[in-house]
Amino acid sequence: MILPIVAYGHPVLRAATRELQPGHPGLESLIANMWETMYQKGIGLGLAAPQVNQSLRLLVLDTQQVMAKLTEQERQESGWEDDPGLKAVVINPRILAVSEQDTAEEEGCLSLPRIRVDVTRPLEIQLAYQDEQFQLHESKFVGLTARALLHEIDHLEGKLIVDYLSPLKKKLMQRKLQDIMKGKVDAEYRMLFADRI
């Protein structure tokens, strides 16, 4: 089932998320719905549970779809030649380490349609997480996958891409943000707005 994407301004996007435990009711169905929601019309690389109105430490991610489409030259030009991509359910992630080297890239967010923000993030991360069977994994991620994971983990911490803007740039964007909060936005997918809870 395709779920509505929670829009900027909804309190769930700023709420603290809860750790998931084995046997969480409806988890298998929620994960399946998150995959279906993320893949609708090819709208995203990742989706965090708060974006579908669930305050849980859960995300789904598929950067393999992008990496599979890139030529070797495009991989080198993007700096992603060492990134094989990742398709995974990520539960209760913990960032163990980040590289000193970072990179700035433009990012979008399903909860902020038509908004793009330059975000500086570490080039590499070391991550501990559980999969959908609650098996523990510890892996290093680079490039697009590291960036996408950090973006989705931000959602689990109540942080959004607009939080990376300078105060001046955020002020200049205020009208667009207000429009999203009021539902005055043209998205290619169904959305859930704070004033319609």
Task: Describe this entry's structure for a reader.
The protein has 197 residues and is an alpha+beta fold. It has a single domain (5-196), classed as Peptide Deformylase. The chain has 6 helices and 9 strands. It has a 5-stranded antiparallel sheet, with helices on both faces. A two-stranded parallel ribbon has the order 1-9. A two-stranded antiparallel sheet has the order 5-6. 26% of the residues lie in helices and 29% in strands.
Characteristic terms for this protein:
about 25% helix, alpha+beta, about 200 residues, 9 strands, single chain, 5-stranded antiparallel sheet, two-stranded parallel ribbon, 6 helices, Peptide Deformylase
* DSSP helical segment count: 6
How many domain regions? Answer: 1
Order of helices and strands: EHEEHHEEEEEHHHE
Number of E-type strands: 9
Radius of gyration: 16 Å
Reading side by side through the largest sheet, how are the strands ordered?
Answer: 2-3-4-7-8
- Percent helix, as a range, is 25-40%
Structural class: alpha+beta
Q: Which architecture name does CATH use?
A: Alpha-Beta Complex
Residues in β-strands, percent: 25-35%
Q: What's the level 1 CATH class? A: Alpha Beta
Average pLDDT reading: 94
Alpha carbon gap, first and last residue: 19 Å
CATH superfamily: Peptide deformylase
CATH topology assignment: Peptide Deformylase
Low-confidence stretches: none
Shape designation: globular
Q: What kind of sheet is the major sheet? A: 5 strands, antiparallel
